[in-house]
Specification:
The complex is a heteropentamer.
Chain C (H helix, E strand, L loop, with lengths): L2 H19 L3 H21 L3 H26 L12 H25 L15 H9 L3 H24 L21
Helix pairs in contact in C: 1-2, 2-3, 3-6
Chain D lengths: L4 H7 L22 E8 L3 E8 L11 E7 L2 E8 L7 H6 L3 H9 L6 H16 L5 H30 L4 H21 L8 E2 L2 E2 L5 H25 L3 H7 L7 H6 L5 H5 L6 H4 L13 E2 L5 H25 L20 E9 L2 E9 L7 E5 L1 H5 L3 H5 L4 H11 L3 H5 L1
Antiparallel strand pairs in D: 1-2, 2-3, 3-4, 5-6, 8-9, 9-10
Chain E lengths: L3 H19 L24 E5 L15 H5 L5 E7 L5 E11 L8 H5 L5 E3 L15 E2 L1 H4 E3 H7 L1 H35 L65
Parallel strand pairs in E: 1-6
Antiparallel strand pairs in E: 1-4, 2-3, 3-5
Helix pairs in contact in E: 5-6
The chains are: A mainly alpha, B alpha/beta, C mainly alpha, D alpha+beta, E alpha+beta.
């Protein structure tokens, strides 16, 4: 049942209209009024329109809600990031900006407003020798690609903007465009060192694309479908009444989740991998020649990328919009999705507050020599896991033990090989 | 730790040609120093570093000192027999003599291996104008590299054998050596906001407009 | 022939044609990538989502990077971009090659049994069936595509390495020890 | 505002400020203060000459490095000094002995107490001035507090260079503030203490002050444990610093390196043990030594030295005698030591800081020389950075722990 | 095992994040200007001149002896002694400037001043737009009452006042003794010529300080121990007689 049917571009009669009528009768679990609130609101708005216009309006509504939601999330995220970073460093974080011209501080909620105005009023300098069209197109392309990825994320029980059969593939296909935009940014500023830095950022993006893609393959194998709602469906139900069937709670699922998150960190240029804006990057990476609102667009795209990747991680591994415990079903599904998303985003910020930066050669070696082999071995464990799904009783424990061994073994071996020449040392005293 | 005299005697025995003398230090710190002639300085330094008894492998401090020409007034008392048979008259003659100044470089040497106290050696240039070259001890102790460049920059002592003798603190186009006693700083060098006494006198030359508009009223004499 | 089909065709062919005529190598490479995206749009229009996203992921994501890296690393100087003087022989060769490919394509299009009228609702092929189909009957085709991609990658590396003075095998001379006399 | 001559004066071309050495042509000045231009070198292909500084986020103060890069690795690295040079030694020769004391605070402006002590020690050696017991203990307490402060700051700056977004630096500064508050309560100013005098010190430490200092020293081990949990075992930091910027023993001794850098290379030379100045022989403390001499060792040696300093502080508080803090016969004004010379040195947090004074009997010293540890420790910067990347050069410079007030004098 | 160190690091940052909400030691920011840290008594910023009584200028303790001008390392004090109509120098500064853009608040002037005429202020919000006129503090701007001095440096001021009172008492006693001796001599030599009138005892206001070299420690603050300890005469050196740095409210120590 879909909110809007983008995939069928043909004006042929789409079947959503009939399904939406039948939704109240589906005895889906937890269909309290609160649960179906967004759909009721949507039907309220579009019920009077004749048939073809209703579909246009529905899709428009979906786009508006998704874009507006993520824009607000971006604004809040910049503030929350600086507040959490501040609190970690024993200082209160921004709390001075509130409503303009009033003494109201609002715990710093005015900060995103202030940053926005600042970015808008900053002068947008374009180097004379720059390739004007590409220079302008780069941030737009980056932002477009990261917004495209929102289309397949299941925000709630039946709140997925586009119900695609190959939703996950679509997500990563759209994500792959970011490299193109980074290249355009590096090339268009006609500055040899920003091009060098762009190539370095590309190397990082490409070398972490592989573990990212490899880490979600086991999920597809277990769920048996490429559609995001299908994956969430596959994680329904609870074992022994209180352990949900989330993928993250299986050995291969946890390993895949960790690899996915580490690669997501690298894809969105976040903390241990934030190479482009490291001062050792000669200048400021491929963002050197950008200023003003274009610079802000780059950061908006980075935050959108971060949100999209964590939303996909929630869908694939943390059971999407499913409640962790049966009796918690009364809380609507989109709230669960939001909570899990905020938890992952908090993880991003927490990691940024703690870890130093990796050098470019260590970063790529970590990807190729550790993450990719781990992902491949994890594929094997997932295959073993699916083959032995009908073991029962004591065999179940054996199945868990073997799976855990298959995950932990290579981790320890490769971990030791990777950190062969780094170890805490003991010191002698004169 | 051997006394300075023993070190000097051993050095003299090894290098008969070297001019070595002890400079007594009257202050209670009693850190006497060894004045080394220019020619064999580097061999002596290498010996001091490699000698098993001394092992002075750590050159802690390289300092430049400027001793300008000193005007020494000697009063010689001569008694002249009075031609008229009277009592001999005492005549004081003041002879003014200019003792030529020199630039001096002092090295404080320690031994990290044997943890022994400072052995101080000094080297002196011929005079303060043309003979200002001294053998550089950086090939013996690498710690001299920056410090000797600083002595070159601020005092003007040319160290031959120094791997990279350039100015280190002042910028390359700077003329003159600021740490010399007779260095006259350019008078617009650092103009005080509230000049008085001699700074005011110097600053007056730089006021473009009529008398001291900038000198704050309070200082009107 | 719906309007969407026309728009997509126009975009794809247009970007491919302009790509050929531009002097700036990078611009033509980007337009080439745009034409690949156009082909992906075609698949979408035809309802084959999986193929469209695969096309996007593979071509626009990965092969475009290979092409752009190859273009950058080869650093051909501008001079050899000009058309060679003896144009006559080149025109004949171009016509021959063009005519041959045109003939083959035309033959394939005419003989293939295409369904005349677009069916009401295109049959939705689920990804699972496609997976079994791909791994089963078309496994050979999959391997060929894999080989094609590796060839593209190797071509990029060879193109790039021709420009270097010393052959990649010989390591660059060890860094001279820091001579004390700097300038 | 009146058109004061200052503006006119400084407008004139012959301004004394000086400009950068002319051979570096000013190519586009990019944010982050890095002038870059490409240099063709006969056997490397086109090298990249990057000038980092003088105002660059990772150089600690106005220090400039001109690094010549072959792709990623550094082929040549030339430090440029002098941006903060004010000829401290000439000022010392034109001021009285007492007048130079406040200027020593401005040498290594992170550790003013140890600078004061080194200068006071040198003058006391020159004039043979005895110092009462209580002052000797107070000097040891303040010097060890300064060592804690300096090493904590260094660990924070080093992590800031590797990219941790300020968290370790904030924890370091949180502890540093407590120590600075103690200095402010005692000497009146946080960083410019001007506290020691020849033959004693200015203000006695009240029992409340001693109580607060004791509480700080006791709580410091707990902070260090938390700090090490955040940093020492961190794999990313170990990867970034182990094996980076290795300095062999012989080079360290020959280049006159002193302080934690020397002990990280494995040379056992701590002036507190060698000279035994002040009352250090009465405390038993250990001197940590490293084996590899790389950046990680330099960081770890400083952390272990902090733990030893806490040990010294505990013993010093226990043995602190009461009694006068100023030798009655010490003269504040009209202090004219007899002609002669003296070189006094102490183990400052950055290395051996020494003062070499030549007196000609007058009120002003004839020659006033400062032996700056960070200036001399920079001799080996190029040797350590060769073969590494720019990201490592930034960390190696951070591990040397330089303060430009002392480097440029 | 790879990653253990990273997890420990995350643990520390988490502890600080949680701690910053309940543990004051983990949230150390004082949000100036609303909150202000309490300045310790020894805090010093720029000097000021102390005057007794109410009249600002002629109550100044400063006798324009120029010792501070000579001893000041950056030479930022400028004094011109006042002369009365007959040209004889009176013990008052006509011009007393301190250029606080040059002064580095090293308090050497306080240390060497034999008359306790100059003390260190605790006023630190003195930013100015113009570098010359308003940063050059004249005599009128520098003069502050002794009560203000009591307020900012309570212990130190108490000790200084006790010393001055002591010096004054001794001066009066000496003057009285000299007067009696003179009277006695006059009585014995009354038949002789009348003695020249004894010099009137010095005006109580500005007793010349005892010439004895004042040990540097005396001018320093006394412990904040409530009873004002008898000032330590140079000879007698009681164990706790030293001026000690008073209790310091070191926040978070």
């Amino acid at each position: 049942m879909t909110l809007v049917q983008l995939s069928r571009v043909t004006p042929g009669v789409s079947d959503w209209f009939f399904q939406s009528l039948s939704s109240p009768f589906i005895a889906a679990a937890g269909d309290s009024r609160l649960e179906r609130l967004p759909i009721i609101a949507r039907d309220l708005l579009t019920s009077r329109l004749p048939e073809p216009w209703r579909w246009w309006l529905n899709s428009l509504l979906a786009i508006l809600v998704v874009l507006f939601g993520f824009a607000i999330l971006f604004a809040l995220l910049t503030l929350v990031e600086r507040k959490v970073l501040g609190r970690v460093q024993n200082r209160p974080g921004p709390n001075r900006t509130g409503l303009p011209f009033t003494k109201l501080r609002l715990f710093g909620l005015g900060q995103p407003l202030a940053d926005g105005i600042k970015m808008l009023t900053k002068e947008d300098i374009v180097p004379r020798s720059a390739d004007k069209l590409l220079h302008f197109l780069a941030p737009v392309a980056l932002l477009a690609f990261s917004i495209l990825t929102f289309a397949v994320l299941p925000f709630g029980r039946n709140l997925v903007p586009v119900e695609l059969d190959a939703g996950i593939l679509y997500f990563f296909a759209a994500g792959a465009g970011t490299e193109l935009a980074v290249f355009m940014a590096g090339w268009a500023s006609r500055n040899k060192y920003s091009l060098l830095a762009a190539m370095r950022a590309l190397a990082q993006l490409i070398s972490y694309e592989l573990p990212l893609l490899l880490s979600f393959v086991p999920v597809i194998m277990m769920a048996g479908t490429l559609s995001t709602t299908g994956v969430v469906e596959a994680q329904a139900g609870w074992k022994f009444g209180f352990i949900p069937h989330w993928h993250v709670l299986t050995p291969w699922g946890f390993a895949a989740f960790v690899i996915f998150m580490v690669s997501a960190l690298a894809e969105s240029n976040r903390s241990p991998f934030d190479l482009p804006e490291a001062e050792s990057e000669l200048i400021a990476g491929h963002l050197t020649e950008y200023s003003g609102f274009k610079y802000a667009l780059f950061f908006m795209a980075e935050y959108f990328g971060m949100c999209a990747l964590s939303a996909m991680a929630v869908t694939l591994f943390l059971g999407g919009w499913r409640a962790p415990l049966p009796f918690l079903e009364i809380v609507p599904s989109y709230v669960w999705f939001a909570l899990k998303l905020f938890a992952l985003l908090f993880g991003f910020i927490w990691i940024r507050a703690t870890f130093p930066r990796l050098r470019i050669d260590q970063l790529t070696r970590f990807a190729w020599k550790f993450l990719v082999p781990m992902a491949l071995i994890n594929l094997g464990t997932a295959a073993f896991w699916s083959l032995t799904c009908n073991w029962s009783g004591p065999l179940q424990l054996a199945r868990w033990a073997i799976a855990l061994a298959l995950v932990a073994g290579p981790f320890v071996v490769m971990g030791r090989k990777l950190s062969r020449d780094y170890a805490p040392r003991t010191y002698r005293y004169a | 730790m051997e006394s300075l005299e023993q070190i000097r005697d051993r050095l003299l025995s090894r290098y008969p040609g070297a001019e070595l003398s002890i400079l007594n230090n009257p202050s209670p710190s009693a850190q006497h120093s060894l004045v080394v002639g220019g020619s064999a300085a580097r061999e002596i330094a290498a010996f001091l570093r490699d000698d098993p008894a001394l092992q002075l492998d750590f050159c802690s401090n390289v300092t430049g000192v400027d001793w300008p020409d000193k005007e020494i007034v000697e009063t010689t008392r001569t008694t002249i027999p009075d031609p008229a048979g009277g009592p001999p008259k005492l005549v004081e003659q003041k002879t003014k003599r200019i003792q030529p100044g020199y630039l001096e470089v002092v090295y404080h040497l320690y031994s990290m291996a044997l943890k022994q106290g400072p052995v101080i050696i000094r080297m002196r240039t011929g005079n303060r104008t043309d003979q200002v070259t001294l053998p550089s001890l950086t090939p013996v102790w690498r710690s001299g590299e920056f410090q000797e460049r600083e002595v070159f920059d601020l005092f003007g002592v040319v160290f031959d054998g120094h791997p990279d003798l350039r100015r280190i603190l002042m910028w390359d186009e700077f003329k003159g050596h600021p740490m010399r006693k007779d260095y006259v700083e350019p008078d617009d060098y650092e103009w005080e906001p509230t000049p008085h006494d001699e700074v005011l006198a110097k600053a007056k030359a730089h006021y473009p407009a009529p008398a001291a508009p900038a000198a704050p009223g309070a200082n009107a004499k | 022939m719906s309007i969407a089909f026309l728009i997509i065709a126009l975009v794809t062919l247009g970007s491919a044609a302009v790509a050929m005529s531009l002097r700036n190598l990078i611009h033509s490479a980007l337009l080439l990538i745009a034409s690949w995206a156009g082909i992906a749009a075609f698949y979408l229009w035809a309802g084959a989502e999986f193929v469209a996203f695969a096309q996007l992921l593979v071509y626009v994501g990965a092969v475009s990077m290979v092409v752009l890296f190859a273009v950058l690393l080869t650093r051909q100087s501008r001079v050899d971009m000009a058309i060679a003087p003896d144009a006559l022989r080149r025109i004949v060769a171009a016509l021959l090659a063009g005519g041959a490919t045109l003939g083959v394509l035309f033959g394939a299009v005419v003989s293939a049994p295409l369904p005349i009228a677009a069916s009401a609702t295109p049959v939705t092929v689920s990804v699972r069936q496609m997976g079994q189909e791909l791994m089963g009957t078309h496994a050979a085709a999959l391997l060929i595509v894999g080989a094609l991609l590796t060839v593209a990658l190797l071509g990029a590396i060879i193109l790039a390495s021709t420009g270097r003075e010393d052959p990649p095998g010989v390591a660059p001379p060890a860094v001279a020890p820091p001579t004390r006399k700097t300038s | 505002m009146t058109n004061s001559p200052i503006v006119a004066l400084h407008g004139t071309p012959a301004v004394a400020g000086g400009n950068a050495p002319s051979e570096i042509c000013h190519s586009p000045l990019a944010p982050g203060g890095a002038h870059v231009r490409s240099v063709r070198d006969e056997f490397h292909g086109d090298l990249l000459e990057v000038s980092m500084g003088p105002h660059h986020p990772s150089t600690h103060g106005v220090f400039r490095m001109i690094a010549t890069l072959d792709g990623e690795t550094i082929v040549k690295l030339k430090p440029v000094f002098g941006y903060l040079h004010r000829n401290h030694e000439k000022i010392g020769e034109n001021t009285t002995y007492l007048g130079s004391m406040p200027y020593t605070d401005r040498l290594d402006y992170l550790c003013s107490m140890t600078n004061n002590w080194a200068y006071a020690l040198a003058v006391e050696k020159l004039a043979g001035q005895p110092v009462p017991e209580r002052t000797e203990y107070l000097r040891v307490i303040l010097a060890e507090l300064t060592r804690l402060l300096n090493h904590t700051c260094l660990a924070g700056f080093l992590l800031q260079d590797t990219g941790a977004s300020g968290t370790p630096l904030m924890y370091a500064f949180r502890e540093r503030e407590k120590i600075l508050d103690l200095f402010e309560a005692l000497s009146g100013s946080r960083m410019m203490c001007n506290y020691q005098r020849f033959g004693g010190c200015r203000v006695d430490a009240s029992p409340e002050w001693l109580e607060a200092a004791k509480r700080l020293a006791d709580g410091y081990n707990e902070f260090l444990d938390e700090y090490e949990a955040l940093i020492t075992g961190n794999e990313i930091l170990m990867a970034r610093t182990q094996g980076v910027g290795v300095m062999p023993r012989q080079l360290a001794v020959s280049a006159g390196i002193t302080g934690p850098m020397l002990r990280a290379a494995g040379v056992d030379y701590d002036i507190r043990k060698v000279d035994g100045y002040g009352v250090y022989p009465r405390f038993n403390f250990r001197v940590p030594l490293g084996d590899h001499g790389d950046t990680y060792d330099r960081y770890m040696i400083r952390v272990l030295e902090m733990r030893e300093s806490i040990e010294i502080l505990r013993q010093a508080f226990a043995q602190l005698p009461s009694g006068p803090i100023m030798d009655p016969k010490a003269k504040i004004r009209g202090f004219k030591p007899k002609p002669g010379e003296a070189y006094g040195r102490i183990e400052g947090p950055k290395g051996e800081i020494g003062f070499y004074l030549i007196s000609d009997g007058g009120a002003n010293p004839y020659r006033y020389r400062v032996r700056p540890p960070s200036f001399i420790n920079l001799t080996v910067l190029e040797d350590m950075c060769l073969g590494h990347s720019i990201a490592d050069a930034v960390i190696i410079l951070g591990s040397i722990d330089i303060v430009l007030g002392e480097v440029d004098r | 095992m790879l990653g253990i160190g990273l997890l420990k690091g995350l643990g520390v940052t988490a502890k600080n994040l949680v701690g910053s909400f309940h543990d004051p030691a983990r949230l150390v920011t004082t949000e100036y200007p609303e909150q202000r840290t309490k300045l310790p008594e020894n805090y010093r910023n720029f000097p000021f001149l102390v005057y007794d009584g109410t009249a600002a200028i002629d109550g100044l303790r400063c006798v324009a002896c120029k010792i501070c001008e000579v001893e000041c390392p950056p030479q930022c004090i400028y004094i011109i002694p006042d002369r009365d109509e007959k040209g004889r120098p009176t013990k008052k500064p006509k011009v007393f400037d301190i250029d606080i853009s040059v002064c580095m608040s090293c308090q050497i002037c306080v240390e060497v001043c034999p008359f306790d005429a100059i003390k260190m202020d605790q006023q630190y919000e003195i930013a100015e737009a113009d570098r010359f006129d308003r940063l050059l503090l004249k005599r009128e701007a520098l003069a502050k009452p002794n009560s203000y001095y009591q307020e900012i440096h309570p212990a130190e001021a108490a000790q200084v006042d006790a010393m001055l009172a002591e010096a004054r008492r001794k001066a009066d006693a000496k003057a009285k003794a000299a007067a009696e001796a003179a009277a006695a001599k006059a009585a014995t030599a009354k038949p002789g010529a009348a003695n020249p009138p004894t010099r009137p005892p010095a005006p109580s206001g500005s007793t010349p300080a005892t010439a004895a070299m004042k040990p540097a420690t005396a001018a320093m603050p006394e412990p904040a121990v409530p009873p004002v300890q008898p000032t330590q005469t140079p000879a007698e050196n009681s164990a706790t007689g030293n001026p000690v740095a008073p209790k310091t409210g070191t926040p978070g120590a």
